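Researcher: I'd like a structural prediction for the single chain below. Treat it as a standalone chain; there are no partners to consider.
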Amino acid sequence: MVERIEGRVWLFGDNVDTDQIIPAEYLVTGDMNELAQHAFERVRPGFSSGVEEGDLIVAGENFGCGSSREHAPRALIGAGVSCVIAKSFARIFYRNSINIGLPVVECDVQTGDGDRVEVDFKKGRIRNLTTGVGYDFPSMPPFVLRLVESGGLISYVKKQLAEGGRA
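Model: Treating it as a single chain, here is the predicted structure.
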């Protein structure tokens, strides 16, 4: 089970909308890797070429506002983002992220661009490894962790049905 991750921070502000995450003209594909090539291209050029597997996004309030498209969290997964931490999320982005396997955490975390951060989902603890400062958040329920680890809701249900269990 995914319990803990560590990665480098990409810092964003408030009200980052889904059009900023992935511009509308790229919505003709659902391919995560192709979407990843255009993530944040208008607001943070160089993101797609600089982001590395396991990096995290830390943002302010209302991350993922705007259109209710799954393409935004899919682009982030394709780019290698392991988690998004924000003061608050647009509800549909939050739910879409969990449904496709991207961990999201609501917490007011103070970091700098490039800081290293550790997230312990089970304990509900974030630690900025660069500054040594820690933050608490409500731990994720085991069911949500299983969804994320399975790659999202559809993958989870398929696995359960294949194993003869109930979805």
